[in-house]
Structures are given as C-alpha cells and as structure tokens.
Design brief:
The complex is a heterotrimer of chains A (about 300), B (about 425) and C (about 290).
Chain A (H helix, E strand, L loop, with lengths): L1 H33 L7 H19 L3 H23 L4 H21 L9 E2 L7 H19 L2 H11 L1 H6 L4 H27 L1 E2 L6 H14 L5 H18 L10 H17 L5 H4 L8 H10 L4
Antiparallel strand pairs in A: 1-2
Helix pairs in contact in A: 1-5, 1-8, 1-9, 1-10, 2-3, 2-4, 2-8, 3-8, 9-10
Chain B lengths: L1 H24 L40 H4 L12 E9 L6 H21 L5 E9 L4 H15 L3 E3 L4 H14 L3 E3 L14 E3 L4 H16 L3 E7 L3 H16 L3 E8 L7 H10 L3 E5 L2 H13 L6 E3 L6 H7 L7 E4 L8 H14 L5 H20 L4 H10 L3 E3 L2 E5 L5 E2 L3 E6 L2 E4 L2
Parallel strand pairs in B: 1-2, 1-3, 3-4, 4-5, 6-7, 6-8, 8-9, 9-10
Antiparallel strand pairs in B: 10-14, 11-12, 12-13, 14-15
Chain C lengths: L1 H28 L6 H17 L5 H24 L8 H24 L15 E4 L2 E4 H23 L1 H11 L1 H6 L4 H26 L8 H15 L4 H22 L4 H15 L14
Antiparallel strand pairs in C: 1-2
Helix pairs in contact in C: 1-5, 1-8, 1-9, 1-10, 2-3, 2-4, 2-8, 2-9, 3-4, 3-8, 5-6, 5-8, 6-8, 9-10, 9-11, 10-11
Classes of the chains: A mainly alpha (about 300), B alpha/beta (about 425), C mainly alpha (about 290).
C-alpha cells in the first residue's frame, strides 16, 4: 500500500507540487474576492516573493524558512503603498489598475540586471518539498475556515455585498480592504518563494498578465463563495492537461486541442456553474435566480 | 456542522475523481501513433524503474505504479525488433510553437528513416511527442511523465532554454539522458553529466560571424539592437558585444525592444541618427523580419548583420527585398552543399510540403545522434545511450561533422551566409 | 524629430482604432470585453485567408474580414454576454466569459493556421513612400491614419445624430428607463457588439498588414495597451479613445527616443496608473451621454 502510494507520488510529483502552489495562489486571490475586490496583482506579488526568495538564498544564504517568509513579507510591504490609493477605485477600474501594476512589475524585473534581467535567475537550489507546500496550504485553509464565522469574515462578506451600507454600520471598510489586499499579497509572495525553490529558475515573464488571469481562472472555476473552491479549481486546472492526455486516443492531440478544451471548460463553468465546481459538491448547479439564492445563502449561518 | 461535513465529503469525492482521472489518464497512449505498440516493459528492462524522487538506492522494478503495471505484463521479446522509447518535449503551443512544429517534423522524419533502414540493427524507435506549451511547469510535467510513466530511454528537447533550465535537472536526477536540440542559452549542460545538446550556442557562432563579416565589410562602427526579454536574443547580444569590442568596433547606439513588438520605428530612427556603418541585430524571427523591413522603409541602407533568429527561409520570404544583403551566422545553412543536408531537405520537403528550418535540422540530427549512440554502445537503455553519446566522434550529420565538447555541448562548423538574389549563400 | 512624430501618430492610429471598439462596449454596458483582441486577430486571419487562399483583392478581403468580425461580435453577445445579464456581478462574470471566448478563438486559430507567423503576400497593398521634410511614411500608413479618423468620426456621428445612436446613449444612461421608453435594449446591445467588433476587426487587418505579421497570439500585445488607452481617454468616450490612442503612440515613441527603448512598454502602464490615481475619469471621462 505504502509502496503504491510512494510510486504514485513519484510519478505525479510535479503535478502534486505545482497543484499545491497553484492552490495557495488561488487562496491568495480568494481573500480579496471574498471582500468584493477584483485584484489581478497577485501574479506580480508572487514575482516579488520569488525574486526575494531566490536572491536571499543565493546571495545572502539565509535559511530556507526565513527566505520563504521574507518573500511574503516583501510582497506584503509593497502591497501597502499600492493598495491605499488603488483600493478606492471601483470594480473594473481596480482590476485594470492592478493589471497595470502587474505589468509594471514584470517590466521592472525584465530590466533589472542585478537579478539577471530578462534571463531571470537560474540555478536556484531546490529546497521546496511537498510537505512545505501542503503545510502552508493546510494552515491557510484552517485560517480561512476560522475566518468564516469570525467578525472579520462577516465584515468581509458585508463589504462584498454592499460597501456603503457596511460603512454606515460602522465597519472600517478601508482598513479591511487594505488588510485583505496585503494578506493576499503576503500569501502570493510565499507561494512565489516556494515556487522559485521548486523550479530552479525565476523568469520575469512568468509574473505578468497571463499568470494573473490563470490564478483568477482557478478561483472562478473552483468557486469563490467557499474557501475550498479556489483549491478545487487550482487542482482541476493543473491536472487538466493530464486528464486530457487520456483522450489522446480519441483524437485530442497535445497542443491546440488541449488549449481549446481548456477554453471550453472555462466557458461552460462560468455559464452554467457560476458558483464554480464546488456547487457540484453541493448539488446545486443549475441556478437561475442568482440574486435570491445568494441572498438566502448569506442569511444562513452555514458555509 | 452537518453542512460542513457533507460539503467536505463531497469535495473529497470530487477531488478523488479528479485525481483518479489524472492518474489513469497519464498511462494511456500519448500520440495516435502508439496505438498498437506493446507496453513499455520491453524498452527499459535493463534499467530499474528509477524513482524520480531523491532516493538513491536501487529501486526494485516492482515499484512501478499499480496503474502502469496493468500494461507491464507484456513479455520481453529477446529476439529481433526491440522497441526503444524516446520522449520529445517540444513547444506545440505557446510562444515557441512555431519552432516546436518544425522540430516535431524533423524528429519524426528521422525516426521514420531510421526504422525503415534498420539503422540500429534490430531496434525500432518509438517517438513520443508531447507539448511543453512553451512553459516551464508543463516541461517539468512532461519530463516526469516521460521518465516515470512512459519510461523512455532518452529525451529530446525541451524547445526553450528556460524550460530546459527547469526540467533538465529532473532528468539528471533520474539519470535519463537529455539531448537538447534547440537550447542555446547558458548554464544548460552544466546542470549535469546526463545533459547534452546538439544546438550550437550563439556564443560559438557569433564570434565567427563578426570576424568573417569584418573581413568582408571592414566596418568601424556599429549600432546594436536586441530583444531584452528573451534569453536567446540576450545571449546573442552578449556574444555580439563581446566580439565587437574585441575587434575594436565602436558601438555607437544600443537599442532594445520586446520580442513581441511590431513597431521598431522609434528605435530605428535613433539608429539612423547615430549613423553607424552596420546594424547588428540579435532577435527571433518575427522581430527580425520587422526590423529589416522597417529599416529599409525608413531609408537605412547600412548592411544588417543578424544572429541565428534570421536563419530561416521564412525570413527571406517575408522580408522580401529587405532581406537582400543581410548577413547571418548560423548553425545550419539550407544552402549547404553537405550531401546529407541536401538529402534531408528533399525528404523533408517531400513529406511536409515546405522547406525545413534550422530547428527541424537540429531535431532531425538529434534523433540520428541518439541512434548512433545506441549503435556505438550496443544498448538501448538509459546508461547505454549515455555512454554511447560520449563515444560519438566525427559523426557525419546534416549539421556537418559533429562532435561533443568535453562539456557535452555541440561542436561543428558554423556557417556565415549572406542573402543574395533571394537565397542564402555562404559568405566568403 | 519629425520622423519620430510621424512614427508616433502612426502607431497611435492603430491603438485608437482598437480602443474605440473597447470603449464603445464599456460605455454602454459597463463591461470589459476581453475577447476584443481575439476578434482583432481572427479578422486578420480572415483577410489573410481571402487574399492568400482565394486570391481576392485587398478591398473585398477587408470587407469580408469586417463582416466576420461583426459576426463574431454577435456571437460574443449571445454566448458570453446575454446568459450572464441577470447576474449581480455581470462585469466580473463577463470578464471571465470573454476571456474564455478569447481562449477558444485562439485555440481555433492555432489549430487552423498553426503557430507560425503568417504574412500577407508582399504586393497586397501598393507600396509608395512619401516624404514630409525629413520624415518618411508609406501610403499604407497614411491610409490607416486616415481610415482610423474617418471611422471614428463616423461612429461619433452615428452615436450623436442617428436614432440608433440615441438609443445607445439611452441604454448607457439607464437601461431600465430605456426599456420603459420602448427601446429594444437587446437589439441595441447586439448592434453595439457588432459595431465594436467590426471596428476591432478592421484594426486587426490593418495591423496585420502594416506589420506584415499575423499570428494567433497577436492580440495580446494590443490588448493591454488598449486598456491604457481607454482609461487615458475616459471610459466610454469615443473621442477620448481616439485622442488617447494617438497620445499613447506619441508618448511611447518619445520615451524610446529620449529614454531608451527599455521604457516603451512601461510607459503605457505608468500612464495607466497615473490616470487611475490622479484622474480616474480620464481625459474626456463621461459615458456616451453627458453626466448630469
């Protein structure tokens, strides 16, 4: 039994590790989404964490746990001056501003010759193991779970529903928004640092708009109303190429066909499973009356 | 509480289904070609199924996964027609997709020829091509599948140098030989002694380009343009800068751009104002075409000297008149009079209806190099292929007479060419 | 110097043409149609197909491509927008649905045409170079600039003076009221998508022609710059998109000329940032209708 498990892991270790990191990234987005903020800056924060981690390990030889934390801290620190002005923008403007930020960061890294410029940093020693990743993930999930029934959790939910009303009720909206933004950045930074020590290389092009979209897709496909949703989404999308490989004999060749399948999956999910795949787990996929349904769900004390 | 439990249970069920799908999926055939080939057991019976994890002790073959074991029961034929699996990780989608496509063609052509001519006596090569999506994560994943699931004897690729930096270490750890057929970046073969490449690095070609062009054109100043967001172009720039400095050519202007840029008018106008004798460009094919065309339109008449990105019939076709007079240093020349090269071009054109490019040539050569290694070592397992690769000496290939350097890099004569009347001809 | 200005105007005209479609949809519906860049790309391929495979002349090919783009716009409306109308978070879900739609279009293009960059045959458009002082530009470039101006002026006229335009502005102002007033909102939205996509398609064909490069990924570069342009110009403002496009083109070229080519891409986003923080409504920030 143990042998089979071990063998399974070996064969799929890439998937398991990368899936774990993607899950962490998806959760980093969840915090902001749960508060009603669409921020696409997390890929950039991940990049900041990755560069910090790689540089600290290779130039300053810090111990690994410290390096990972430092990645998160630096990302979080960047988030504060960014967040304060940007978070007062509404809806789609916030998304656009964060996209812009992400691109500026990416271009900065491409031009930063100390860190290798466009070539990035390679030869990063591999220090991340699966239990690092899953420890972080489990910790995060635990925090999310506790958050749900806490005051902070309810406040986030209230802000998501109606900002103005929440403010009148005495919730310090700005503080919460900045807090979740910074929290998301911290988590993304940690994910970035872990990933840098997994892949041997830090490449500035990995932290731009398309990565930000990928992370968003994890969260959306999985479901954003429950904290476990983004994790499911990350797991599925990461595993999708391998799942599709099974259909190669049916003519789904590697390459454009798989890309097509991914696009179709995303479209189907957003059209028919707006609550994400998690809603299958709760057997309520075919929602039409979104407004009423969500409202009733909110009223209930459950997840 | 009850709600959470139900959700958790159903979520776990969902998760289990996802994992099961992924697990079952990876053991099925990769490409339609494979539909009838027998299971992998025959190919790597000599090498233990090395676990890719960090454990070093010899893992007994029984550690194969339960899912894979299903097909492992096939008897090992001890007589003729052994099948050896070779994995090819090429970029079939993503930014490098246009290179991956021709690489796939070149490799497949070689495999078909080798199998038909029984080049390695008693051995048939089974080429498994998979998409690394021009992305590191996918490259790593594909490598893992090749090593653990398909149990290949050797791997070709991946297409991009950056992907190689991420995925090659895995093969090194698993002691699976990797032959890069398009990696020209730095730091690749230094990953370990199982990593080889047949693609001549820019650092080797460029100094020759500069020297030969200097002899012919005798220029004193140069403007240099390069893409600063691409490892290949950047490496080319470093090589050009070093060679120009060494030969006392003054660089009067340096311009950068992004590989995806289409508009170079601003940079070219700067170049025009700097009045250099020649314009040196290190870029991939698309920007190369754009720069050449727009330079001529803006009235720049200086000779253009290009790196490997210019080395493609597509460059001449798409730049039209602007391509005339451009000097290119390259690892492979479609106008080469190497008889093997001529045969290759004919066969490729016949099979695919279009002329091959350097990527196809290098992939094609890569397969032949692997086959030769098998022959020299009289073995088709991982260790055997590796020792065979080390034995390769003065091997005649489409790229010329080929050797590996002590560092397992490619070594063969580069060709400096100039475009004359719409064709590449060697620059004397 | 003159040359750089010409360069800037020309680069800007493509941005302008692309951004106008973007801003039209945003102005009326408050959603960001991220499939716009995929339509841009598909139209270029459609024109390419007509010229290369069916040996058409450029004019008919352009019309064909525009029609295809319009059809794609209608498809986007039916598939990616309409089913999501009733949701409270429409801007978000349409962001995702249009991303998905774009991914599907790209995958199809990849499948049909491969990843190689395809090109128009070199004689597709007559090749003349003109000179103004020390600056050089081609006939094609001139046509594109002129075309961009004409099309956007035409659109502006449509919006201001026609019944359809008035209906569009009404829907932009207050959808429910418009419906109550008897305006067929669905039809207006449908037409808006079609027009927006058609303009994006024309931009795509021009882009593919002038840079002689058509590839499945070609929309991505313009997509993000397009965002900067519409923010700069003011979301929903057509003249804003045009002016913003030209401005961005000029600023980009200036930064390359003065500060070095590293800065080119950064400039677009720094501008974006600055605008969002300092003057979020952009240059002409208003909807298609004056805000009261």
């Amino acid at each position: 039994m143990l042998g089979a498990l071990h063998a399974f892991y070996t064969q799929h270790s890439a998937l398991i590790q990368v899936g774990g990191i993607n899950a962490i990234l998806a959760i980093s987005l969840y915090f902001t989404l749960a508060t009603g903020l669409l921020s696409l800056a997390n890929a950039a924060f991940m990049g900041i964490g990755a560069y910090t981690g790689a540089l600290l390990t290779m130039r300053a030889h810090w111990p690994f746990p410290l390096v990972v934390l430092a990645g998160g801290v630096l990302a979080a620190t960047t988030a504060v001056p960014l967040g304060l002005p940007v978070l007062r923008l509404r809806g789609v403007f916030l998304a656009i501003a964060t996209i812009g930020f992400g691109e500026v960061v990416r271009i900065f890294f491409i031009n930063w010759s100390y860190a290798g410029g466009a070539l990035g940093i390679d030869g990063v020693p591999r220090k991340t193991t699966w239990w690092h990743i899953y420890l972080a993930l489990v910790l995060l999930l635990f925090i999310c779970w506790r958050l749900r029934r806490s005051r902070a959790g309810y406040a986030m939910e209230a802000i998501r529903q109606d900002e103005a009303a929440s403010a009148t009720m005495g919730i310090n909206v700005t503080a919460y928004k900045v807090a979740v933004f910074v929290a998301g950045a911290f988590i993304a930074g940690i994910a970035g640092s872990l990933q840098a020590h997994l892949r041997y290389i830090v490449d500035p092009n990995d932290y731009g708009f398309s990565t930000a979209v990928d992370i968003l897709v994890y969260a959306v496909v999985g479901g954003m109303n429950v904290f476990i949703g983004p994790v499911i989404g990350a797991a599925l999308i990461t595993a999708l190429p391998d799942i599709l490989r099974q259909f190669t004999s049916l003519g789904v060749q590697p390459g454009p066909d798989r890309a097509l399948a991914s696009g179709i999956v995303l479209l189907l999910v957003i059209l028919f499973l707006p609550e994400g795949l998690v809603s299958i787990a709760r057997f309520r996929p075919w929602r039409r009356r979104q407004t009423t349904a969500i409202a009733t769900q909110r009223a209930r004390a459950g997840p | 509480m009850k709600n959470i439990r139900t959700v958790a249970l159903r979520t776990a069920a969902l998760g289990a289904i996802v994992i099961a799908l992924a697990a079952c999926g990876s053991n099925n055939n990769k490409t339609a070609n494979n539909a009838n080939k027998p299971a992998s057991a025959a190919a790597t019976q000599a090498a233990p199924a090395t676990a890719a994890s960090a454990t070093r002790a010899a893992t007994p073959a029984a550690a194969t996964t339960s899912a894979a074991a299903a097909s492992a029961a096939a008897a090992t034929p001890s007589g003729p027609a052994k099948t050896v699996k070779i994995g090819a990780a090429f970029s079939l989608t993503g930014a490098a997709a246009q290179y991956g496509a021709t690489q796939k063609n070149g490799a497949q052509l070689a495999v078909d020829e080798i199998n038909a001519s029984n080049y390695v006596p008693g051995v048939k090569i089974d080429l498994i091509v998979d998409d690394d999506a021009s992305a590191k994560d996918q490259a790593i994943n594909v490598f893992q599948q090749f090593i653990n699931s398909d149990k290949v004897a050797a791997i070709l690729g991946p297409t991009l140098s950056n992907s190689a930096l991420a995925a090659d270490p895995i093969a090194q750890q698993a002691k699976v030989p990797v032959l890069g057929v398009s990696n020209t970046g730095e730091g690749i073969t230094t990953i370990g002694d199982y990593i080889f490449r047949d693609s001549l690095a820019e650092a080797d070609v460029v100094p020759q380009t500069v020297q030969v062009s200097l002899q012919k054109l005798n220029y004193k100043t140069a403007a240099v343009m390069y893409a600063n967001d691409d490892a290949f172009s950047k490496a080319g720039y470093n090589a050009f800068k070093g060679a120009l400095d060494k030969n006392n050519v003054k660089i009067v202007d340096t311009e950068t751009f992004s590989t995806n840029d289409k508009d170079f008018s601003a940079q070219l106008t700067n170049v025009k104002n700097a009045k250099p004798d020649v314009i040196v460009v290190s870029a991939l094919l698309d920007p190369a075409v754009g720069i050449a065309t727009q330079a001529r339109k803006l009235g720049l008449t200086q000779p253009i000297i290009g790196g490997n990105g210019f080395n493609s019939p597509a460059f001449i076709k798409n730049a039209g008149d602007a391509a005339e007079g451009v000097i290119v240093g390259a690892a492979w020349n479609s106008a080469s009079d190497n008889p093997l090269s001529k045969k290759f071009i004919q066969a490729y054109q016949a099979k695919y209806g279009s002329p091959p490019d350097q990527f196809a040539a290098q992939a094609y050569t890569g397969v032949y190099i692997l086959a030769e290694a098998m022959k020299l070592a009289n073995s088709t397992d991982r260790e055997g292929i590796r020792s065979g690769l080390l034995k390769i000496k003065d091997f005649p290939t489409v790229l010329g007479t080929f050797n590996f350097t002590p560092g397992r890099d490619a070594q063969h004569q580069a060709v400096i060419q100039i475009v004359k009347n719409g064709q590449f001809v060697p620059l004397q | 110097m003159a040359q750089q200005i010409v360069n800037g105007i020309f680069a800007g005209s493509i941005y302008a043409l692309f951004a106008v479609g973007y801003t039209l949809v945003f102005g009326i519906l408050d959603i960001l149609n991220l499939a716009h860049q995929a339509v841009f790309m598909m139209a270029a391929f459609a024109a390419l197909q007509a010229v290369l495979k069916w040996k058409w002349n450029f004019g008919p090919a352009l019309l064909f491509a525009t029609a295809i783009a319009g059809v794609l716009g209608i498809l986007i409306y039916y598939i990616a927008y309409r089913p999501l109308r009733r949701r409270p978070d429409t801007y978000f879900s349409t962001l995702i649905s249009t991303i998905a739609f774009a991914a599907i279009l790209e995958a199809l293009a990849l499948r049909w045409y491969g990843a190689r960059t395809s090109r128009f045959p070199l004689n597709t458009f007559p090749d003349h170079t003109f000179h103004i002082g020390s600056a050089a530009f081609t006939l094609l470039q001139a046509v594109i600039v002129a075309g961009a101006l004409v099309l956007t002026l035409g659109l502006q006229a449509l919006v201001r003076y026609t019944r359809l335009g008035k209906a569009m502005r009404a829907v932009a102002e207050n959808e429910r009221a418009a419906r109550v007033l008897g305006i067929d909102v669905e039809r207006v939205v449908l037409v808006s998508f079609a027009i927006s996509s058609a303009l994006g398609g024309i931009a795509g064909v021009m882009y593919g022609l002038v840079y002689n490069s058509v590839a499945p990924g070609m929309g991505h570069a313009v997509e993000l710059k397009g965002l900067s342009v519409i923010v700069l110009g003011g979301m929903g403002s057509i003249p804003g998109a045009v002016l913003g496009g030209f401005l961005l083109g000029l600023v980009e070229v200036a930064s390359v000329a003065q500060l070095g080519s590293n800065t080119r891409d950064a400039v677009a986003f720094i501008v974006l940032f600055a605008i969002l923080l300092l003057r979020p409504r952009g240059l002409f920030g208003r909807r298609l209708v004056r805000e009261v």
